[in-house]
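Because showing beats explaining, we think one record worth quoting, sequence and backbone structure tokens together, and here it is:
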Amino acid sequence: MVVSMESSAAIQLADYRRRVAEIYARVRDAGCSETSWNKWRADRDELFRTHPQSPIPQATRSEFAGLAYFHYDPYYRTEAKVEPVAGQPLPIAHSGDGNTAFLPIGRVLLTGLGIDDTLTLFWLSAYGGGLFLPFTDSTSGTATYGGGRYLLDTVKGADLGSREGRLILDFNFAYHPSCVHSNEWSCPLAPQSNRLMIDIGAGEYLGQER
């Protein structure tokens, strides 16, 4: 969520989100694999490097060398069952001022990854809605951003799809919110319910590429 917005910037941001959605559509078409992950990485780097709504500040964009990731590991991909839950809209705090209301709609079981834990799946309560699945883990605050990373954010086009009612989750595709790159952005943070007590050594991390 951007702090302020003019009409020209809004049109650019709509285009940015459209391009993100196209990047994820290619992953869904190809299937989650190291090959599609590498293409996803290259496409994201190009978008961050060239688009006027890139979260990389314009003053440093020419120096941008690419986002850093843990090595790809197929272990971190699963098709997760979602158990329905009932709840009231929850205000989730932002990295900056304010919050956004999300409705808890399900409990995502991570047993397919050998993890005896769950994540809360949220639905954006604003017009149009969208699935949102943020998380933190033991790397948060050190190797990764302390406020968490995102697995799904369908309002932004970040969606790996589903199969027979199960969500396709792949932590190799976990990414940082835009506020990591610039404080011009204010992004929802992972709530307490989505704190994993293990290392998730997959997806985007802070620092230089390994």
Q: What stands out?
A: The chain has a mean pLDDT of 93. DSSP finds two helices and eleven strands in the chain.
